[in-house]
Amino acid sequence: MTTRRLSAAALLLALAACGRGDRASGSEGDVGGTVVISTAAEPDFLLPPIILSAMGKMVSDQLFERLAEIGPKMNAMGDEGFEPRLARHWTWAPDSLSIAFELDPRAHWHDGKPVRAADVKMGFDLMRDPKVASPQAPNVAEIDSVTVRDSLTAVAWYHRRSLDQFFTAAYNVIPVPAHLLGSVDRANLKADPFVRNPVGSGPFRFVRWVPSQLVELVADTTYFRGRPKLDRVVVSIAPDPNTAVTRLLAGEADFIEVLRGEQLAQAQKDPKLQVKQYGGVDYAFLQFNLRDPKHHGRPHPVLGDRNVRVALAMALDRAAIARNVYDTLATVPFGPAPRSLGIADSTIRQIPYDSARAKRMLDSLGWRDSNGDGIREKNGVPLRFSVMVPGSSRPRQRVAVLIQEQLKGVGADVTIDQLDFNAMIAKLGTRSFDALINSWHPDPTPSSIRQTWTSEGSRTNDGSNFGSYESPVFDAQVDSAVASHDAKQARTLYLRAYQTFVDDAPAIMLYEPNLVAGASKRIRLVNLRPDAWWAGIAQWSIPAGERIDRDRIGLRPAAR
Amino acid sequence: MTPDPLLDVQNLRTTFSTDAGPARAVDGVSFTVGRGETVGLVGESGCGKSVTALSILRLIDGAGRIEKDSHILLEGRDLLSLPEREMRDVRGNRVAMIWQEPLSALNPVMSVGDQIAEVARVHAHASRAEAHAKAVEMLRLVGIADPEQRANEYPHQLSGGMRQRVVIAMALVMSPALLIADEPTTALDVTIQAQILELLAEVQKRMGMSILLITHDLGVVAETASRVVVMYAGEVVEEAPVRELFADAHHPYTEGLMRAMPRVGGTETRLATIPGAVPAPTDWPHGCRFRERCPYAWELCEREHPPLYQIGAGHVSRCHLAIEPERRAHPHVPIAAATGAGAGE
Amino acid sequence: MSERAAGVRPLVSVRDLAVHFPVKKGVLGRAKGAVRAVDGVSFDVFPGETLALVGESGCGKTTTGRAVLRLVEATAGTILFDGTDVRALKAEPLRKLRRQMQIVFQDPFSSLNPRMTVGATVREGLVIHELAEGAEADARVRRLLEEVGLRPDQASRYPHELSGGQRQRVGIARALAVEPRFIVCDEPVSALDVSVQAQVVNLLQDLQRDRGLAYLFIAHDLSVVQHVADRVAVMYLGRIVETAPGEALYDEPLMPYTQALLSAVPVPDPDAKRQRIVLSGDVPSPAAPPSGCVFHPRCHHPARDAACARIVPPLEPKGEMSGSGKSAGAPHLVACIKQPPTTVDDATQRAAGATHPPQRYLPVVGAR
Amino acid sequence: MSATSGPWSVALRRLRRDRVAIGAAAAIVILALAALLAPLIAPYPPNAQPDIVGMATLPPSGAHPFGTDVFSRDVLTRVMYGGRVSLGVAVLSIALSITIGTAYGAVAGYVGGATEAAMMRLIDALLAVPRVLLLLLALALWGAVGLPALILMLGLTGWFGTSRLVRERVRALSRGEFALAARALGASHARVLWRHVLPSALTPVIVAATLGIGNVVVLEASLSYLGIGVRPPNASWGNIIQEGSEQIASGWWIALFPGLAILVTVVAFNLLGDALRDALDPRK
Amino acid sequence: MRRLLAARAAQAVVVVAVVATVVFALIHLAPGDPFGAALESGRVSPEVRAEWRARYGLDRPLAEQYVRWIGSVARGDLGWSFSRNRPVAGALASALPNTLVLMGTALLLSIALGIAAAVLQAARRGSLVDRGSSALLLVFYSMPEFWLGLMLLLAFAYELPIFPVSGVVDPVMHEYMGTWGRFVDRVRHLALPALTLTLLLSAAIARHQRAALLDVARADFTRTARAKGLSPRAVLLRHALRNSLGTTITLLGLMFPALLGGAVIVETVFAWPGMGSLATSAIAQRDYPLVSATAIVGAVMTVAGSVIADVLGATADPRLRDA
Description:
Helix content of chain B: 25-40%
CATH architecture of chain D: Orthogonal Bundle
Strand content of chain B: 15-25%
Structural class of chain B: alpha/beta
Shape of chain D: elongated
Structural class of chain D: mainly alpha
Distance between the termini of chain B: 35 Å
Helix content of chain D: over 70%
Distance between the termini of chain D: 17 Å
Largest sheet of chain D: none
Strand order of the largest sheet of chain B: 7-8-9-3-10-11-13-12
Oligomer: heteropentamer
CATH topology of chain D: MetI-like fold
Order of helices and strands of chain D: HHHHHHHHHHHH
């Protein structure tokens, strides 16, 4: 599941992690305690501009504060609802081509130095510098530069106006300590000790990182917005997802972001554990390559035909597949957007499950099994394609086997190509595949669909439209939806685009899982957001009466 | 034979179970060894002489066992009825043994001094230092130069002759009453053999023990033994004082053996042979076991297993010729010519 | 070496044969010294005669036998077989020549392929040299088995089903199959019991008589050698120290080593009273042979002195041409500078530190 | 004694008297037959998913003696089909590695000298890398591999030990007396090696191969457990266990039965190998 | 003995060089650019990619790359780990001690256990104890490592939670424990992985040791010892055991790679952060510098293991000392 997130890294990092800015409050009684977060992923780095992994993001979000946080309505357009963080307030230029952020003078780095405008500039510059080769450079592409007006005022300058320009600077540009990073060798930033031993400005301080074992954070009691309730957060790194869950079940860890299947059932039975659904923004799909993998100029000999794709969609009992893999914890998506974003709905017309009709359709298209081997052919081309799945994702491997068998029932031969993650990325890059089972973790702005499904996303190097779905109709519908400034109108336009998408079937939507976190009962979980379950860690607490050994360590440093 | 013998083996029968059925390797062997005497036990491979030696020390293991009605009396005590613990007191103490292959008889990973000392530790309950001193003393006794140094060496560092001296030293630690020497010089070169035989004669003179010398080499027997027991097919076929045996071998097997043996200084240009080969111990012929190879055999030999006939003073032979001596003048084949198509092997 | 009986050319003629085995050390197996297994050996074997090579274990007699057949490669020297330079032969002519020179091994068990029947073993030479095939080969195998005293039906037996003597007969039949002229008999009877040993010795003698074979008979047992050999060469530490017709050697051994060797052989006669020379110590290592006469450290010759350690004794005639029958006219050669006559004159000896003049020393006269 | 008393028939006679060997051989034959005849005797089609919602992960019952897996497939059927892959991969890769190892070892041992030293240093080095690591490396480098490639890789990484064994035997035998006798007869090197040396050198190899089959079955299972062995939809015992190891608490039968199949196979091959070694032992 | 060590050290260098070559060949024989995948993610600009390639010399001819590679291995410069984002040497340095602890513990325990079992079996040859324990050991010997590990995990971490499921120490509490507490913590974590390896390894050792003991029991010098009047116990312990140890030690030297291979799998099952886990994760992530380094370190460990086996073997057997 971790790598599934990683596979959507491109989008993940465009994601707005928003959090309600509750001030730390409450009695002495709920301050203290240790939460051990179990995961199978290891952070890559702990310096925001070079982070690519989800777990790196999760940890760095505790260490590094951003300028402003998205509001409870999760509105990413304009600055409505955004709450101040490092920035006390901000001022739009009259032409809206620049925004000045005024920093809170109380904010300070964990080494005691105050947070300054130069730190904001440093955060931006590192993302932009080609020597750094920041994977997040595209996320700040809209920003031309960041300048220092005075020591507490940083100004972001934009190329052009856009709906999410505030979001881009407030969320994506994360200030880093210029006094510590000013003289680093940017070409070798990844080798700099700082990236494994960071000094941040957030509610938690960095303590230690033992590779492949753990990352330990401790509450910053001098945090300018009030100390977090927990004393300590430990990310305990397991080598594989199973072990990660096992640690929770064995009481060695306190929290895991996703439980499913058998392990969920076990956790539900365990009197020491709680489970908590928190939705999710992921959606998984069977994506087709519409182009011939060997000659990109030609359509795919089998999957280039829309009718074939529709017939294949009809042959899949997606409800049963979701049920088999996730039991009741997943639903079949309406379109290329998850329910939790509220943009897609049941008005979108779906391709029904009807294998008899699928067979008839394939017959009428000329795909017939003439040689009796159970596989249809047309003009000597067999109805055969391979499906890539990452070796690291058990659910997707399982789905692949289910799809394989169901499509075999209508005379289509699917071979499963189980690849390790990097090999898959390489094949996606060169578009040399037939189909894949993939999953996106999109950002809260529906406009991100451009990157994944429009022609724009298929042509550019950064785009993620690996299947080369290039429908002028869909492109135009998306463009007009993005351009719209009226939320209602935008929704209608998006729904129209989604319908086009579903009818063209460049991908068959499979399921959107409803994420269930598992945690020790003694932890009071706050604000598990569908897109960022960690947003509220600073507000999590453990009542004094329920504490165990590790909660009583207090703030003292490790004995070593 | 000898009054009040040191060792009195009576009707020893040792059987091994094999795939082909029970093998009666030693089948009713009786002989005695007097005090201070050297008895030669002679025979070809497979005749049971080594098994006899191992049986005396009760070192038959695995598939072999000594039959119930056998007796081995050492100084009047039946070794076969001793409990194992008491038997251990006999081994290496009252009865010691030396072996054919000195290299494989020595533990390759223990210094020779330790291996000799071990005997003193076990039987004399000597301290480590005493035992070591004893080992050095024994090495000196068997004529090894620089014994202090040699005691710390390992078997592979010694020459073949020296190894055999070590084995002898090990056997002599407790001044045993009986030394069983199983082909002690067969694996050695002739010049080394001379050294070892000389050593044995010397220590016997000095310590006065009895020696049971097992060998296939009649030359060695002639030079060292006072009495000879000849074995064939698991049985004693002839026993006589050494001079008498060489002068007047009675059993056709002994006779054949003597004639088949090339000798330095011998004049015959062609050796006599014994046709055929030793039968298998799982399948001894009935009647006389030698009859199929015997130039004199007649129907009595097939019908009746010959007993040990008394031939002369201290001379017995398991051959019916004892009762029909005139038949010796009429062999079936001229003995010297019996060669060539010996297809019966 | 021997020019007796003019006109008779030796079948095998060996000159200055040396076989050194490198002693390897280190990772890359560099040679660090050598074991001089055979160190300058010369002899002739004439058609139809038996030359015995006698010595104790490690003296190099087996290596010599194998080097003659090029089963081990010689380091130096020449080997002529019927005029052909064996050492110079390429693989194919050598293979062909092997038809004429054969070997019988000591251990009849390890020298037979346990996976091949007696018949296949004997037949192999016929196949290799394309002497016969099919039914003809079968017939020849049967004849050969009969000739060595086996039953033809034993052709289907495997070696482990045979007795030691029978195995040695198979080994002999294998050698005979290719109709050689010369056979190296490498301790052919030392692994056998006395009664069987006599059978095999007689068989070898009969075959020699019938087929006119020449034998190089390698043995350590002097009593067996006396029975089979026309001439005897005694080896010690890789060298021939004495060579003579059988009778001469046994009657009057001149090399002190030979004397000790002969005197050590036990005699199966309880009344024989003989003086025994018991050598002290062991044979030195062939990797570091003593200087001068290799036997000098153990020598009992009364005239032994410092010169023995300095002068390598030449193998030189010491007695009159003796011998009878096949060995008639063969010289008695001895490598000892203290046994007169010697070509190493007094002056030379004294220069090498001699304190004793050579003197005739015959402690073991008339072993016969 | 009968005419058929060659070393092999003697060994066979000994084996026939060895009750443990008979039992082991019987177990292997049963497993092999079940695998070979799977298409004829398996109760269900191997990949059929009759009801992925209602029949998934059912415990053993009369209809499904080994239960069903997460895809509602019959585990007994899968284990039978998995045996085809597991045993087939093991036998073929062992055959390959024995062939390569024998050829390499025979050449090294027969030629001797510097060539041999160089050849054996290479073997030392290859043996110094744990085979699992070597396979992980190779399999990861080549990405998803089919069964033929997996067999090839198992075969190519499995011959080092064999070559050492063969080298030692060939070295000893080719310098031994019966090889010398053959050379003295005028046999060519090829003939000596082929007719005299190799047949005797192969005895321990056959024992090693028998023991090796068990090892490869385990190895294949381990690789599949690490996710780089036999890939779905091909069932192998290893990847059935891998699938089952995630259901270990709710569907223990999925991993248990293929695990038992492996255990029985390996134990049987080990027993048979031991018995074979005893039967071929000339000392007895 | 010193000569033996020197020879083995030279041999070790050759072995490591060959392993380095094989690894290089493997990586460069594989289809595609070996370091491609790590650099192929769409986020890296072509210029940066080119710069990285230049930095690792991937733009040079193969021969030059090979020379550079061997040279850097010889200097002990193992490069940069893409997946760990740190120098390879650092990643190895944190993993190696864990592997050594695991393997060392398993090795010592299994030698003790294996030899004890073998002695017991040999002393009671053919008895119920002998046959029963032989059968049990054979079953362990035949089990896949991961399977045994999974079963132990299921039994002792899940069903009967006596031992922790993974890791070397309690990730959180260990740093805050006293000395004794830390020791107990380490032992508890070590228990299951070490037990898994120990069961497998001791089964192998016992099987071989038993056979070796029975072989020695047939040897002539054992008979000599009995003829000296030694008790069966003394013969077994003083003569047979010491002699048979030689073959067992040799076996251990030969088994070292297999032990390392077993450790790779056991480490994976128990999430033991050692060389094995490092190797498997590096391979999964195509982190070739790290992969190569683990292979080389594995080879060095194997060679070291065999040198130790040789030295121990020579201690146990004086014949080898002079060899």
